[in-house]
From TrEMBL:
Its main location: membrane. The keyword Transport applies. GO terms for molecular function: monoatomic cation transmembrane transporter activity. This is TrkA-C domain-containing protein. GO terms for biological process: potassium ion transport. It comes from the Bacteria. The lineage of its organism: Bacteria, Pseudomonadati, Pseudomonadota, Gammaproteobacteria, Oceanospirillales. The chain crosses the membrane at residues 5-22, 28-44, 56-75, 95-125, 137-155, 175-197, 409-427, 433-452, 459-477, 489-509, 516-538, 544-570, 582-602. It comes from Amphritea atlantica. Keywords: Membrane, Repeat, Transmembrane, Transmembrane helix, Transport. GO terms for cellular component: plasma membrane. It is a multi-pass membrane protein.
């Protein structure tokens, strides 16, 4: 063992020790590794910083931007809503829906891409269901890695294994040759991630600590059961009239805050102002007491029909509320709601008033406002966001939904189209994954789904630095010969073993190496050795190669084992040891399944 090998192996052990110690940030440890390697001379200065220019790092940065576009336009929240409808508020049910979906995507596209796209979705789900992100994000990461095991294109190690068989003059693996083994691992892995892993994951607290949900605002102001939908019939007195003409609030104590026309909530673009005319067939979204709603329908010729949950969900995307307090200089003090002209001034409606901490429910139209009154204002999200620039109110609270909903909800079809086009380009091979991702990221900005400031803020610098900083260590292990030494030493112990023990040894060797260096590089190194062993024993190489390919994707036990683990490290607030506790049992389970199922499909 020469001095360079000893140096690199010592640096690797120290790095792992610092990660486990957890007193220094992981991205800082990665930068320390870069500096040490640059000074050591084992790799060139250019190679020490080459990780920052690696296509993998650039791809991840681009996917952060694409994911931000999906988040800002509400696509992530919509996907989260679908998963919530399927899984309800139960952590287990949500995981049972989420894991197969992510694994299925990872089977046909980059696992890193799938995780980057689903992180905002999972965070949205956690906010809505009040779950801890730490309980959801690591299962997300592991599901994507398992999904990559299931097809030829699911992960690079599968392609490497197939290519190595072809290079040896053998029949390469087919597209679905990996599916039986990967499918069994997914089945048992799903059960583990749903029923056991959450007990091992850390308690990091629920996101959304300060912002209540819209439903809580409704309960606080006593209006939870006072939302209605009314349809204006052709012969309705309201047709052709404005809200001000009909004096709905003063006559019926009813406030119309939105209109659905031709399937679209026009208030998202045109608020229901005093001059907004009602047309035949319009669906009016209103609040008021049941008595007032009934009188309005009878006297004006409207039809009442319910306010189902899906309509409330849609409304939450377009409309929201804000709680504001009147300060002593506010010009509306001493005036009624109508005299305060809230719709004309702020494009918002007053739907609730608290005085001395008690709700006035809906009978407050003629009540003069007082200093210290707290108002619940309703309207389009963009107008609620604009309240921060007003000097007449003290903003108290906005709902949690505001953090996951945007005034750019109308751009959601564009963002979704961009993402689907990106996936199509990646899967079809029309262009490289890097080109497709960069094209999608630029399209998100140019189309107005996000702006440049939001794009820059979306870049998770800690994750990018950690990935880029650890890549040179893998290169140093290869150039110094440390990797070859590890491989040759372990294989020397397996030379005279049975085929099953040799496969077990290959699995352990490949899996361990994949925790610290690229799984693709590991497969490239181990694959030809496994073929040589199989041929030396006069056996078929397929079971050995399949074992190596699957083992390379079991990068569960360290946050640096795979970019997908690194991506969830910061938003999940995980420590190094968390991956060891949850990932190691999953690795052992994957090994047992692989060693059991592989010989049944690919006999020795």
């Amino acid at each position: 063992m020469n001095i360079e090998i000893l140096f690199v192996l010592t640096l690797l052990l120290i790095t792992i020790g610092l990660f486990i110690w957890d007193r220094i940030r992981m991205d800082m440890v990665a930068m320390m590794v870069v500096v040490v390697l640059a000074v050591s001379g084992i790799i060139t200065p250019a190679e020490t910083v080459s990780g920052f220019g690696q296509s993998l790092v650039v791809m991840i940065a681009g996917l952060f931007v694409v994911g931000e576009g999906l988040f800002r336009t509400g696509v992530a929240a919509a996907v989260g809503d679908w998963i919530l409808r399927m899984g309800g508020q139960s952590e287990r049910k949500l995981l049972l829906v989420l894991i197969p979906v992510v694994a299925g995507m990872s089977a046909v596209m980059s696992s890193t891409g799938a995780v980057a796209l689903f992180i905002p979705v999972v965070l949205s789900i956690c906010r809505s269901a009040r779950l801890q992100p730490s309980k959801m994000l690591m299962p997300l990461s592991f599901a994507s890695l398992i999904g990559g095991m299931m097809t030829l294109i699911g992960t690079p190690p599968n392609m490497v294994a197939s290519t190595q068989l072809r290079a040896a003059g053998l029949e390469p693996f087919g597209f679905f040759d990996f599916t039986p083994i990967g499918g069994v691992i997914l089945l048992f892995g799903c059960l583990y991630l749903v029923f056991i892993a959450p007990k091992l994951l850390p308690e990091t607290g629920v996101r959304e600590a300060t912002h209540p949900h819209l439903k809580e605002f409704a309960q606080r102001y006593g209006i939870e059961d006072n939302l209605y939908r009314l349809r204006a019939r052709k012969d309705s007195e309201l047709v052709g009239k404005t809200v001000s003409d009909m004096r709905l609030r003063s006559r019926f104590e009813v406030t119309v805050f939105a209109i659905r026309r031709d399937g679209k909530l026009v208030s998202s673009l045109m608020p229901v102002l005093s001059e907004t005319q009602i047309q035949s067939g319009d669906v009016l979204l209103a609040y008021g007491e049941a008595e007032g709603i009934e009188r309005l329908c009878i006297e004006t010729g409207c039809m009442f029909f319910g306010f189902p949950d899906d309509e409330r969900t849609r409304m939450d995307k377009e409309f929201g509320v804000a709680e504001v307090m009147l300060h002593n200089r506010s010009p509306v003090i001493g005036k009624t709601i109508q005299e305060g002209r809230f719709r004309e001034r702020y494009n918002l409606s007053v739907i609730g008033v608290l005085r001395d901490g008690k709700p006035l429910v809906t009978r407050f139209a003629g009540e003069p406002l007082q200093f210290g009154d707290t108002l619940l204002l309703a309207g389009g999200w963009r107008y609620i966001e604009a309240l921060d620039d007003r000097q007449n109110f003290v903003m108290l609270e906005t709902p949690a939904e505001m953090t996951e909903t945007s005034a750019r909800w109308g751009h959601a079809p564009i963002a979704l189209t961009i993402m689907v086009a990106m996936l199509a380009l990646m899967i079809s091979g029309v262009m490289s994954s890097l080109s497709a991702i960069l094209l999608a990221a630029v399209a998100m900005v140019l189309s107005g789904c996000i702006n440049m400031n939001e794009a820059y803020r979306s870049l998770n610098a800690s994750s990018l630095v950690l990935i880029a900083g650890m890549l040179p260590l893998a290169l140093a292990m290869q150039k110094s010969g440390a990797l070859d030494l590890i491989v040759s030493g372990l294989l020397a112990l397996l030379g005279s073993s049975t085929p099953m023990l040799i496969c077990a040894g290959l699995f352990v060797l490949t899996s361990v190496l994949s925790q610290f260096i690229s799984n693709t590089a590991t497969t490239v190194l181990i694959a030809p050795i496994s073929i040589a062993i199989a041929q030396g024993l006069g056996m078929s190489p397929e079971p050995f190669m399949m074992t190596v390919a699957i083992a390379a994707s079991t990068a569960f036990s360290t946050p640096i084992a795979s970019p997908v683990n690194t991506l969830v490290l910061v938003p999940g607030n995980y420590r190094f040891i968390d991956f060891v506790k949850v990932g190691l049992p999953l690795q052992l389970m994957s090994m047992l399944i692989t060693l059991t199922v592989t010989p049944l499909i690919f006999p020795f």
